[in-house]
């Protein structure tokens, strides 16, 4: 009864935020992050477009089959989609699944054709199929296009440089929380390749229960583009004892970590990932802020602008002017802060900070901080992941 009451209150709060003028995107973000996420696919159809600032009244027409002619990516997309049987609900009739697979191919090719700067990667279809199953083909096309030019953009570069850069945040996050696990993994020389499929598919490829996948998508859509790597870190930290009990060699540790458990305590891990983002934001993991300019082309560097745009979903020039003024004020403050040197915190300082803050931050506060943060995008680490 208590659960039902909480669910009803949350649904009411979500619809109140949707019906506000302007739409209360900050509340929608908090609802997506907090326990249970957005609850139903019906609500996701309404909220996901708001989180991505997509106008559902002006959706593009459905892509046509002509996209497949002379398309350099068509054969690879076709192969990947044909292999994606496990991403569809068990028991779905073959003809229905095959129809969805055709729609999946068309959505991917449509986004790539409209955005020639984007490059297809294996695993992209795992993200697109999640949107297709939740919101249908037409809305999925618009959402995936916006996502591909923002959160996923770094994975769609011609090279893997920016993807490697994001993976390079995994070990410093683990080191901040559990130096013993970090040092063990470093001794085993396991690297971070085990987390690559997690990151580039937003865990869609590795989780078998669709409910868990969409719950994570609620969380990631509401947060900073780096949140999936924080979530990857909390999975490793959650498995601390398994890791430390493992043989300290690359093959053993890689095999253990690449086999992701299906019974993870998702709500607890989501809360911890939010806490870690607040306690150890990307800017604090930077080696030196002087290198930050190197990362300006990454998708996360434009996240604040994207976030501000998402809360201006109303044609109100006065409102927009206020946001521009607020943004200029924030830029001035950040410019002053940028003159200070932010280095990775020594371990002694880390433990003092954890003791002061407590081991966890209340999720409401964490969610608010994640939503409101205007953090600097940290410079590229010099760690080499791939030979």
Automatic annotation (TrEMBL):
Localisation per UniProt entry: Membrane
Gene Ontology biological-process entries: endoplasmic reticulum to Golgi vesicle-mediated transport; Golgi organization; vesicle organization
GO molecular function, one term: GTPase activator activity
Key word Methyltransferase present: no
GO annotation, cellular component aspect: endoplasmic reticulum membrane
SUPFAM superfamilies for the chain: Ypt/Rab-GAP domain of gyp1p (SSF47923)
InterPro entries: Rab-GAP-TBC_dom, Rab-GAP_TBC_sf, TBC20/Gyp8-like
Keyword Transmembrane: yes
Pfam families: RabGAP-TBC
Record-given protein name: TBC1 domain family member 20
Underlying gene: Tbc1d20
